[in-house]
Specification:
The structure holds two protein chains of two kinds. Chain A has five helices and no strands. By secondary structure, chain A is mainly α. Chain B is α+β, with helices and mostly antiparallel strands. In chain B, the strands form three sheets. In chain B, strands 4, 5, 8, 9 and 10 form a five-stranded antiparallel sheet that branches. A four-stranded mixed sheet of chain B has the order 6-7-1-11. A two-stranded antiparallel sheet of chain B has the order 2-3. Chain B is globular. The chains are: A mainly alpha, B alpha+beta. Chains A and B meet through helix 1 and helix 4 of A and helix 1, helix 2, helix 3, helix 5 and strand 8 of B.
């Protein structure tokens, strides 16, 4: 009897000790999970928001003209409240004048206007950036880049039709960097 | 019941695991690359480029891969300026002799410890993209040099597969024509025709009369997997994709069906075997031998030698390096045509055999065909890529970001 009782007591004591042994494991398991979750929290999962719809073959109307679409007669530069985003050239100035627009502007004055506003126009060094350059996004999206977007891309179609996405606000971390 | 020493040992292992998990989890570069890849396959190339660019300047063993990823995202997104920069950065390291120490270490340690320089076909593609951008800009000399670099990279392929990068030969020929060297051009075109004699766009008639060139990329890159003893060797398998060709219409008029100009699976499988593969096989053999011998010793109860051999075998790094440029296409096709200058709607139907894949159809509006010179356009297949869902119209005013904090609001209706 006594031996049995002693044995029982020892078993219970052993069980209690075993139970306590799980504490460090539980602690480390929780710490592991926490660290892993904290690390993974940096991952920004990418999800496209718009659902797919088959594209209509009828072209959308060009609202904002540029060098690729050709100048739309009657439009004035975007910076002057119009819809023209063409690179200033003598031909373009002539086209404005033919439409009776910007009669007090010559090529030099228009280029100066863009320069004073910090807008980057297409030249030998700055082209084919699809408005993802340091001056981007496109001026329509609040940026300083007026290089025509690349035809055959979604960005091009969005810009010329005026149906574009809003630029994402820059993340604080990126700004600091 | 556990003894105190065992508990301490277990705790030590767990602490190490905690550290590993924290390091793995905190690897921000890996996370942004994963997110970038996700954006890339959902066709948001601008977002993908930004995410990949976070790793672009990290000077580690994957430097080339980071730049190739940035280049791919920029190229597919039409940001050719950034694409050229990234591809050139990658190509410089690929061509260079850097990373020799890591290369030697990788022979005895894990193979993936070496500086990634890509397989010959990947090097050829990086230079090919570089050349395409120069060609689009009308810089024929630099374009020709880049296409030549692509062919040079292909020279490291197995015997019989050298100089079979037909699309680069074709483009070199076109560069020579622009530079007024028809004899050299003819030699390059002949080499391109040798590989693909039935490609109608490699014919003299098409080359001389067409003014629009479409480079169409199809499918997914070949996949590199481990094979052999203990996964010590690598093998290329075809990426999974359905499209086998494409038909193109411009303003409703059928221009024709695209023709294969380079099959990247063919190119990848033709990379050939090198001394590295032999060393990898030996490493795989030693690893398998150690494990087998260790297990046998343990079965025979021959003391500590068994567990030691088994452990050494298990810990020995023999796995092949399976890093590859997975953003590449599976095939590159060409199509050329003669079109009057003007604005066109291009409709591209990708085909599975002869069946058009409707959810792969791409329609692109207001694509200009220049009056002077050649128009070069790049397209890439993808399921549900050309989405007809456009955001609502905006009425932006200069100096106000539409919908931004400046107070400007987006309104419905065409401005």
């Amino acid at each position: 009897m006594t031996q049995n009782r002693t044995g029982k007591r020892q078993n219970e004591k052993g069980k209690r000790q075993n139970r306590f042994l799980f504490l460090p494991f539980t602690f480390y398991f929780l710490l592991f999970t926490f660290c892993f979750a904290a690390g993974c929290a940096q991952q920004r999962p990418y999800t496209r928001l718009d659902l797919f719809r088959v594209k209509d073959e009828t072209p959308e109307k060009v609202v904002y003209c540029n060098d690729c679409t050709g100048h739309v007669p009657g439009s004035i530069p975007f910076v002057l409240g119009g819809t023209c985003c063409c690179t200033p050239t003598q031909e373009l100035i002539d086209a404005y004048h033919r439409d009776g627009l910007l009669l007090d502007y010559d090529l030099g004055r228009l280029k100066q206007l863009y320069e004073s506003l910090g807008i980057q126009i297409m030249d030998g060094q700055h082209h084919d950036c699809n408005n993802q350059c340091p001056w981007g996004p496109h001026i329509l999206q609040g940026g300083k880049c007026m290089v025509p977007p690349t035809p055959g891309t979604r960005h091009y179609e969005e810009i010329i039709t005026g149906r574009f996405r809003l630029p994402e606000p820059e993340h604080e971390d990126t700004k600091r960097r | 019941m556990f003894s105190e020493s065992k508990t301490m040992r277990a705790a030590g292992i767990l602490a190490a695991a905690v550290a590993c998990a924290a390091v793995a989890g905190c690897a921000g570069g890996a996370a942004s690359r994963t997110a970038g890849r996700s954006a890339f396959w959902q066709y948001d190339y601008a977002a993908a480029q930004k995410l990949f660019a976070e790793s672009q300047d990290r000077l580690d063993r994957n430097y080339v891969l980071y730049n190739l990823e940035v280049g791919s995202a920029a190229f597919e997104g039409g940001n050719y300026y950034a694409a050229r920069t990234a591809f050139e950065r990658a190509a410089q390291v690929m061509r260079g002799y850097g990373g020799n120490t890591q290369g030697i270490i990788s022979l005895i340690a894990n193979e993936s410890a070496k500086l990634y320089k890509g397989d010959p076909y990947e090097q050829a593609m990086a230079n090919f993209y570089d050349g395409l951008v120069y060609y689009r800009w009308g810089d024929w000399r630099n374009a020709r040099a880049a296409f030549h670099q692509a062919l040079m990279a292909d020279q490291s392929s197995a015997e019989g597969n050298k100089e079979d990068f037909a699309v680069a030969q074709f483009m070199i020929g076109k560069c020579y024509l622009k530079l007024g060297e028809p004899d050299n051009a003819r030699i390059s075109f002949e080499k391109a025709r040798e590989k693909y004699p039935n490609n109608p766009y490699f014919s003299d008639d098409a080359i001389n009369s067409h003014n629009v060139l479409l480079i169409i990329q199809l499918g997914r890159a070949p996949v590199k997997t481990q094979t052999g003893l203990a996964g010590s060797n690598d093998v290329y398998e075809g990426g999974r994709y359905r499209e086998t060709g494409a038909t193109v219409c411009a303003n409703g008029r059928l221009l024709g069906q695209s023709a294969l100009a380079v099959d990247l699976l063919d190119q990848a499988q033709a990379s050939g075997r090198s001394a590295k593969d032999t060393i990898q096989t030996i490493k795989g053999g030693i690893k398998t031998g150690l494990i087998a011998a260790g297990a046998q010793q343990m079965t025979d109860n021959r003391g500590a030698a068994g567990p030691i051999m088994l452990l050494a075998g298990l810990l020995m790094p023999a796995g092949a390096d399976i890093r590859n440029w997975d953003l590449l296409p599976g095939e590159v096709h060409v199509l050329s045509a003669k079109l009057e200058p003007g604005s066109y709607t291009f409709k591209i139907d990708f085909l599975d055999g002869s069946t058009p894949l409707l959810d792969y159809r791409q329609v692109w509006f207001h694509v200009p065909v220049n009056a002077d010179g050649e128009t070069v356009l790049f397209f890439r297949s993808g399921r549900e890529k050309a989405n007809g869902n456009f955001p609502p119209p905006q009425s932006p005013k200069f100096g106000e970001a539409p919908g931004g904090s400046s107070g400007a609001t987006a309104t419905e209706g065409t401005p």
